[in-house]
Amino acid sequence: INPSQLRSYFDYGRSQEGKLRRMTRADRDKTAPITLAGWYEPLQIAEPAVDGATKIVTFSGMSHAMNLAHALGRVSKSYVPRAVGAPGATLNWAYGAYLRDHGGRNSRAAVLAVMSGNLPEINTMSAMTWNTDFAMPYTADRFLLQDGQLKAVHPPYASFDQYVRTLDDEKKWSDALREFAQFDTAYDPFIIRASIFDDSAFFRMFRRAYAQRAIRAARHAVLDHAGFNLNNNEVKVAQKIVEEFASSARGDGMVPVIFVVNLFGDSDYLFQALRPALERGQIPYLNSATIASPNDPRKYLRDSHFTPAVDDEMAGALIKIIEAAAHN
Question: Rounded to whole angstroms, how far apart are CA atoms 138 and 303?
Fold first, then answer.
């Protein structure tokens, strides 16, 4: 084993707070680049150069959605992509981003991405609670389902500057952690809070194993070998987000499209879980499983993304979906 790899393995088990304090600097030129990614305020938007003949498609979501946006730019001269993303973005993050942006108010279509691999994390408020190996501080809205309606709970900080001020103030940081404990279902103080045991390689190894088991257990409670549990709160929240997103996008004069990202090995369980909402609302969708079988490793890269050829094919399919919906 490479010594640097072994050191990284043991360091993975450092508390999330400990990692963030080592990574974060108030100076944007000195802080770790990952601490600057994914914030709501301001949203990081790849704005296209357009003229009157082009039609904008805004994408909100994780890197798979950003890759699809790049592919759209490769395969079409009539449609141009506008991308709003965060590393590993969950559906609740993507919907919160859309509610702040509304497709820039001038898009022909709005694409909201949802991925099988992180749907179980839809009830979280910070990437630091569910990505236990690589601490990311950005936050997300939490959506509660109450009496059949969504209620948004906003995070205690939503920008890099707010985060730095909170992390540097013991009371503000404690208050923020209390909010995460209340509203983020993945929050676990044993994983999050720093302690003197962060200096122990053995303890870090133990914490990493514990964190991995906790994440697997949370995922298995929502998705198992038979698919997603349709009676699970996470699935019900996802279905409601899909419906409300479509209604909002249509109200803004855009074609709504749900991009269903099925990771390798996950079958098309995610599409089947969302299908009732898609059919109820007659919502256009791009189901990756129709182009890239989740059982075919040739369609995927080693990092879970689709191959560029698959992205290009899906971009072509997306154009047809948008044009068909626009004519109906």
Answer: 21
